[in-house]
Amino acid sequence: MVDLFLFGIFPYVAVVIAVGGSIWRYVRNQFTYSSLSSQFLEGRQLFWGSVPWHYGIIAVLVGHLIGVFFPAGVKAFNSVPVRLYILEGTALAMGLLLLVGLVILVVRRSTNPRVRMVTTPMDMVLLALLLITVVAGIGVAIFYRWGSAWFVTTATPYIWSLVKLSPDLKYVASLPVLAKIHAVAALVLIAVFPFTRLVHIVSIPFAYLWRPYQIVMWHRRQVQ
Ligand code: HEM
After folding, report:
1. How big is the CA angle at 95 (ends 117 and 142), to the nearest 5 degrees?
2. What is the number of other CB atoms lying within 10 angstroms of the CB of residue 102?
3. What is the DSSP string of 179-214?
4. pTM for this one?
5. Which of 193, 196, 28 is nearest to 122 (CA)?
6. Is 192:20 a contact under the CB 8 Å cutoff?
7. pLDDT reported for residue 106
């Protein structure tokens, strides 16, 4: 019954809130689609937090996506034990790297008086949710080896069953509680996405790659 709600219904609720909320926020005020960087208030801790966090989270997210889109490739890659160990070792190292970055970001937001002035309760909720998701994910990686091997035979078919609008709960039924906490926390993150700083993920200024550079011209009145 709990599984039915958490893994059969809640994923759709989360996606509907994420899409609806993102459109609502964009229509209401598109200029808030930003990470609202606080670099001008504090730069040192931000560097040591933000850089490992972003390198780590992007690598780990791409890893999850490879597992979802190329399960056969991951299985073939992992069929040679040394490759499995290298993959798992790299993924765990990335997880620990992003955890260190995240902890520094949390400490910065809660202790630096200048940064605290611009920190909303939602910023702290977001960081707490990220921390729960990350700690549970690293816990799964450490206690239930080898995640990349069993992910493609449980999470991948479950996610595709969701996409096909017929959730197959048999894939999640036997997952350890820690893995369920990791998945549910990630779903909550999807649901709160539009109401947090996370919106900056979809507002990367890619247009800078092809748009002409900006020419700034001074237009001063001539001195008589
Ligand atoms: C896709 C490329 C991404 C870019 C270009 C990017 C860029 C930024 C920038 C510029 C900031 C402001 C802080 C700073 O100046 O470093 C920031 C903050 C943040 N980013 Fe990203 N980001 C990306 C992806 C992500 C992803 C995938 C996540 C999480 C799933 C994430 C989570 C965060 C969080 C939580 C903060 C706030 C940190 C704080 O408390 O100050 N970002 N990001």
Report:
1. 130
2. 22
3. HHHHHHHHHHHHHHGGGSGGGGGG---GGGGTSPPP
4. 0.90
5. 196
6. no
7. 98
Q: Say how many Å lie between the CA of residue 197 and the centre of ligand 1.
A: 8
Q: Write phi, then psi, for 161 (nearest 5 degrees).
A: -65, -35
Please list every protein residue whose CB sits less than 6 Å from any atom of ligand 1: 35, 37-39, 46, 50, 54, 57-58, 61, 105, 109, 126-127, 130, 197-198, 200-201, 204
Residues of the chain scoring pLDDT < 70: 207, 212-218, 222-224
Classified as helix, coil or strand, 34 is: coil
pLDDT per residue over 108-151, tens digit each?
999 999 999 999 999 999 999 999 999 999 999 999 999 999 99
* Closest CA to ligand 1's atom 17: 35
Give the type of residue at 51.
V
Q: Report the alpha-carbon distance of residue 113 to residue 47 in Å, rounded.
A: 17
Q: 93 by DSSP, 3-state: which?
A: helix
Q: Cα 190 from chain centroid? A: 9
Q: How large is the greatest C-alpha to C-alpha distance in the chain, in angstroms?
A: 83
CATH class of 2-209: mainly alpha
Rounded Cα gap, residues 139 and 127, in angstroms = 18
Closest CA to 35 of 205, 187, 208: 205
Give the whole-angstrom CA distance, residue 100 versus residue 52: 7
